[in-house]
């Protein structure tokens, strides 16, 4: 049997940033028509490797080959010239331009000088429709949801007619339906003989899609698996270097029957309609739904960031109507947004400052801030949450995503919170950190009597952590079900009913 | 909007057939156009000579000089930069152009391209620092502003260079079919830029770089070259304005361009160009420049003290920003 020549090869590639070595001696190949997944925990070097392949970074050592010939990429356009394109993890689009133009960015059709707009738009639409046909190519990118933007990015990578496509966490923002379309799209690409590197934290996806799975850990290539031998447990063990912590939080009966938050008939035009539900003391309520189901909009409304058109909200038996987040926070209702980077952290400030910032009033002395008291309290909470850090004075950006999230939760525990609403609390966080955060949430409900609403598009996550799962679809509550009786299929059916 | 059925929530972004009015309102330049029309109407009623051929040509000529500078400024703002040195670049270029004409014997017809080339070089110097070395454009151009203004004084010792001769005077003073030449050049430049921003790769790349630099890099756009060229063109248009003004005054004056910086930025902002880059239009800038000229002219016609003019312009800018805020909320 003769094996086809690899379309791409990275040989003994290393990359260091100053003294920090992000990638050590990693070799990887990609054959025509192959989907090759790269998995690993955050900081394992997946993105660094992909950034080298797509020409964003230059390797400190090692060689790259395209079709067996050595290549040197100085800029992404060099990689593109060799048929390599990336759909990056972070949304990287021009917000004020149309979807069509974003797809064709830097590749407008037309004769030498002038752009042929008709042809450019038609091209863009063709590529877009391969990935998704609900997005209007004439719409401005800024008017799209995150998931739609992600799909536009994928269409853009595909539009380059690249032979090697890199998908960096493409499904992190997507929900079932879109994910399904994307999966079949990538499968179709592979059938056409194009190849892909695929990065994802969703291991069932990886198993379904890949022809080969490479595991990275701490910048080192720790193994390669065929999809048949890649059980979930095996993958997690290789990624973490130790067996996975147990998955789901144990089922339980809530100690208290008191209702903390009661929502009745909450309505906001174009967002959600007639929402009614209640949240018990110490309960974790999961909210499952597609993007556009109104789940985030509901959270923002309860938090006072937007105003409801109709309906009432009761907190501990008293009707409330928050005129803004500040009032909600003072009443002990906290919302942790989905975009941790954009809305959650202050990147220039230290861990301690990030955690203590909203509670500075508690540490204000006569003329100064009682920094030491604040540090002590942050440290205590960090211990409770098992957060890993060197010094609380380090910038928060020095932490991994999971640890950042822990400090953001800690931030609100410095106040007396009753209700915590978390939007996609573990998006883009690796398996073990995910489990740790879920354990932290569980512990908080038990030890502090906190009630938590977890909004997630990952059903698995809700089935792991929630006591009860509420399904939202098209702005309406479709039902709520105890975790004991819930299954992925059941939830899906509930959403579609 | 209130009539939309909430059960249609699922369809993402319902494709409403946008009315002409709402589409007009969504355009960045809508506010300034409305203001310009309203002000023109008011001045026509309040004075008897506002729409006279003579006065219109005065207003247009006034708009042309600052407007040319504003066109270049718009390009720089669109790539996400700012150029504070344009006024001083206009001054220095016009002096160098005047010297080239009077002392180096360059043919009067070649003086304009020569000066524009020189202006491009001045702007390119900003471009090297901003695009090449990734320095903050505000600081870089604050420094080059001083340098250009200082060099102008070093070269001229504060005295104008004159006379420039009749043959050269045609560019600033001449008329074609009754329209002042600078006005024709201004509109021709605007049309060229509208075409460039709409129809060329370089033009589209300007929006891409200003809208999201990282995305542009990933898309394989030569981001630095785009930024560099935008700064160069800002210098070039400033120089064009400067040398046309010199031609009109029959003198290279060291003070040329002193007041143009604020006018240029104001015109662009009035026209809806965003200071954060990626958003704006040439048509908006042209309207902004016209609005400023009409305002200035109106205060004169209405016998308002010239001192008040700046107060009024400042107020108009604030109103424009507020209108823009309302527009975005819609």
TrEMBL record, chain A:
PROSITE patterns in alphabetical order: ABC_TRANSPORTER_1, ABC_TRANSPORTER_2
Residues annotated as domain ABC transporter: 8-243, 255-497
Keyword RNA-binding (UniProt): no
Keyword annotations: ATP-binding, Cell membrane, Membrane, Nucleotide-binding, Repeat, Sugar transport, Translocase, Transport
Protein name in the entry: Ribose transport system ATP-binding protein/rhamnose transport system ATP-binding protein
InterPro entries from the UniProt entry: AAA+_ATPase, ABC_carbohydrate_import_ATPase, ABC_transporter-like_ATP-bd, ABC_transporter-like_CS, P-loop_NTPase
SMART domains: AAA
MF terms in GO: ATP binding; ATP hydrolysis activity
SUPFAM superfamilies attached to this UniProt entry: P-loop containing nucleoside triphosphate hydrolases
Highest rank taxon of the organism: Bacteria
Automatic annotation (TrEMBL), chain B:
Record field: transmembrane: 24-46, 58-79, 86-104, 110-131, 138-156, 176-197, 228-247, 259-275, 282-301, 307-326
Xref: InterPro entries: ABC_transp_permease
PANTHER family: ABC TRANSPORTER PERMEASE PROTEIN YPHD-RELATED-RELATED, SUGAR ABC TRANSPORTER PERMEASE PROTEIN
Protein species of origin: Albidovulum denitrificans
Transmembrane as UniProt keyword: yes
Entry's localization field: Cell membrane
Membrane topology, from the record: Multi-pass membrane protein
Keyword Cytoplasm: no
GO cellular component, one term: plasma membrane
UniProt name for this protein: Ribose transport system permease protein
